[in-house]
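Case study.
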Amino acid sequence: MASLTVPATVPSPAEDCEQLRKAFEGWGTNEALIISILAHRNASQRRLIRDTYARIYGQMLLKSLNDEISGDFERAVILWTLDPAERDAMLANEALRNWKPANRTLIEIACARTSTQLFAVRQAYHALFKRSLEEDVAAHTTATFRKLLVPLVSSYRYEGPEVNMKLAKSEAKILHDKISHKAYDHEDLIRILTTRSKPQLIATLNQFNNEFGSAFNKNLKSDPKDEFLASLRAAVRCFCCPERYFAKVARVAIEGLGTDENALTRVITTRAEVDLQLIKEAYMKRTSVPLDRAVAGDTSGDYERMLIALLGA
Amino acid sequence: MASLTVPATVPSPAEDCEQLRKAFEGWGTNEALIISILAHRNASQRRLIRDTYARIYGQMLLKSLNDEISGDFERAVILWTLDPAERDAMLANEALRNWKPANRTLIEIACARTSTQLFAVRQAYHALFKRSLEEDVAAHTTATFRKLLVPLVSSYRYEGPEVNMKLAKSEAKILHDKISHKAYDHEDLIRILTTRSKPQLIATLNQFNNEFGSAFNKNLKSDPKDEFLASLRAAVRCFCCPERYFAKVARVAIEGLGTDENALTRVITTRAEVDLQLIKEAYMKRTSVPLDRAVAGDTSGDYERMLIALLGA
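After joint prediction, the assembly is written out as follows.
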């Protein structure tokens, strides 16, 4: 369930472009007008606006936005305006240029998208960066992380509903055996997590819970500071309960001193057209505070208004 | 350069189907008629014939072929009649069901196809087997081979012509270093071979040759019986000189006692629409015997006639 709201009658792309052009004209910029248009158009409408803008004004809309606005507001508007696959390719590249084990962007892109969407990200990555996604992941990540991330971003999982219960049982045992020996990066554990279809994997993890009396992820908490274990847990949560996973990313971004604007923008722009409504419900359930109120309390100005608009307020 | 010959005026799919139906009718089968049609139609024409046949006769053409013909001839006709991506998916699955280190089918599919073709194979594999290709590769291969084959079949290499010479130099050094220490399955060696674009890889291998005075593949011959080293050499040859690689597969299939029909059929059906003309030239250069004469000398009957037709005689 998306949170994006699109008006019942949408102006033509040419009309939207004219309004955007007006928002950029003269002294200062009309940020409210930009938000009122772009934050209320779906991916194919935004694509049409970008194409029309380039045709009419001989300039890229993203370039104009880049000239007119700045800071967290600019980042949110530009990430949102991109096609989903392009946006993910940009986010992945950004994560790789300064890769840190604590960054979960690659895990999210590899595990919380459909197989077809992930492949579209790989195509967009070729077009934007003249390299392959897996090539950059392999070159910029290290050791254990590389063993996990390269097959994750290269996966093209089967998407049918079929589940093989015999396999689920045998692989639950393998997972338990590897975890019992703290062999968290064992090739069989990585193989199961990176190649099996999501329904098959969920059956295996349920089997794990039934057979061994505690959830797979609970067994990956031996060292709370271990970022590799945290990455495995994030992957599992992206498969099994993406809305609760993203609600937590938003919560961590908002809580504590300061705000992690990058993470907050990432959650809102990548999920507004997917399941942000469910994320809001999961957030409310966990914190007893509506996500839009929490966002409003922690951000300000045009950036705040952009996020609130995408949250469907 | 393909070897396939298609007549200047091709009958309509309905006419072709009618003739095929005639070939199947009554006592016995008219194999020559089957060959005269199917062995002289390109992939999109064969696809149309299959669709039309199913519509007119309410039966799958492949099923009718399966009922009417047998042995090596059947295998050649059916493999040829399939779409290229479906054919590769079938060949990969066949190789995996009884996987042996000496089988090079997966290497060929991963390394001698374009990125888009390899992705189409992965899509066809989903549709045919309800699992992903990489999932079966990971589950059926072992140890060192798995380390190489999973990333190879999962790759989606960048296909632009750009080459980074600085990178080629540094990675040639890495390859040389790993090989000097006999670390043939080192993760950096695997990473370079499985993720870099083909032009980049060729630049790196040329650099290797220039800098260290002998070809990369020459350095992978320390143990002629080591199938992993042979697989690495096959991958490199599929990247750099597919026509010479396939000419050798055909030569090995033909030479010696008995014929390896599976390998011969694989080379001819997978390359007839790609570069079989070049493979014939490479074969001639190496053996001084035309490939079609060698095939005719080593096979017989309808199987021989089918292969000779695909060879463009």
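Observations recorded in class. The mean pLDDT of chain A is 96. Chain A has 19 helices and no strands. We will return to this complex in the next lecture.
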